[in-house]
Design goal:
By secondary structure, this protein is mainly β. The protein has two domains: about 200 residues, Sandwich (Jelly Rolls), CATH 2.60.120; about 80 residues, Immunoglobulin-like. It is about 5% helix and about 40% strand. The strands form five sheets. The protein has a five-stranded antiparallel β-sheet with strand order 1-4-10-7-8, with no helix packed on it. It has a five-stranded antiparallel β-sheet with strand order 2-3-12-5-9, with no helix packed on it. The chain has a five-stranded mixed β-sheet with strand order 13-20-19-16-17, with no helix packed on it. The longest helix is centred in the first third of the chain and has 15 residues. The radius of gyration is 21 Å and the shape is globular.
């Protein structure tokens, strides 16, 4: 029989292993109240990784109401958790591929070979100057830190989890989630739209025209436990690969090989662009690997979906010529 102290140590170890690796995930802890743009670093554990994202906190409601919560100079939006959130643009007409990013350091490095669940919540902001909406907002892991002034992050078309649909909800918080099999001991992560203009789909909301697509962000989570990040595992859930299949090589040139975790008795594999258009479809019948000719696909990032066992498994495919 294990002693009580041993059981306590095991419980603590399990809790530490499955906790959220994001420091200050809902931006509540702060060193000062925001009163202007680009004060992301007022939130403990966070900083600007690109241009001038915004920090909003109810502590500014009296002193700097433009950066308060729920009412600020962007919109009226209660926080999903607590009284704070971040804001950034995912597209602008002013400069090609210009993006705002926020980033932070993980409480502990990712473990290569370990699967992680990722989740964050976004809300589309729509006002007279923010009438655009885009897809692509996502999370990217990194082995290096970034600084908005000295070494800003860039739209490099390679986020690890991202929204492949345009989020337009201005009332509710919308969850972006997926899974990631760590391929390196990443210590940092960034949030924003990592796709360049050519791979970003943008639509105009309302009447008139505007210069930005802008989103609030709250409740960022990275954990080995799906329940910690509120990532659903429903019967028909969409999984970000989930180790069901792997694509090699990446980036690809002409042909790729898809390796399945087990023999797929009946299913299909589809390749779509980021707008959701079907470009290639192959049936899977009793196979553990599938060779695809991707020569007809131009360079870019694509979504690969495997339909099997009444579930959808998803991964990205990068084509480089």
């Amino acid at each position: 029989m294990k002693s009580i102290s041993t059981l306590v140590l095991i419980s603590v170890a399990q809790w530490m292993y499955s906790q959220n690796l994001v420091i200050n995930p809902s931006f509540e802890n702060h060193s000062a109240c925001p009163n202007q743009i680009n004060q992301v670093d007022f939130a403990t554990g966070w900083k600007s990784w690109g241009v001038t994202p915004d920090y909003f906190n109810a502590c500014a409601n009296t002193t700097a109401p433009n950066f308060g919560v729920p009412l600020n100079n962007r919109a009226f939006q209660p926080a999903r958790t607590g009284v704070a959130y971040m804001g950034l643009f995912t597209y602008t007409v002013f400069l090609p591929n210009q993006r705002e990013f926020i980033g932070g350091q993980l409480s502990s490095p990712l473990i290569p070979g370990q699967q992680y669940f990722i989740s964050f919540w976004v809300n589309h902001v729509e006002n007279s100057v923010l009438l655009k909406a885009s897809d692509g907002i996502g999370l990217k892991f990194s082995t290096v830190d970034h600084n908005y002034f000295a070494e800003p992050d860039t739209a490099n078309d390679a986020p690890h989890v991202f929204a492949n649909t345009i989020i337009t909800d201005t009332v509710n918080w919308v969850q972006v989630h997926g899974t990631f099999l760590a391929d390196s001991a990443y210590t940092f992560f960034g949030l924003g739209n990592y796709f360049g203009d050519s791979l970003t789909t943008v639509i105009q909301m309302g009447t008139g025209n505007s210069n930005y697509a802008y989103y609030f962000i709250d409740d960022v989570c990275i954990s080995t436990d799906h329940s910690v990040c509120e990532v659903p595992l429903s019967f028909n859930s969409v999984k970000q690969n989930d180790l069901f299949f792997q694509i090699t090589p990446q980036p690809a040139d002409h042909d790729v090989i898809v390796y399945f975790r087990k023999t797929v008795e009946s299913g299909r594999l589809e390749i779509k662009n980021l707008a959701g258009q079907l470009l290639l479809k192959e049936e899977i019948n009793g196979q553990m690997k599938l060779q695809l000719n991707t020569f007809m696909l131009p360079a870019g990032v694509y979504i690969t979906e495997c339909y099997s066992d009444r579930k959808i498994y998803r991964s990205k495919l990068i084509i480089s010529r």
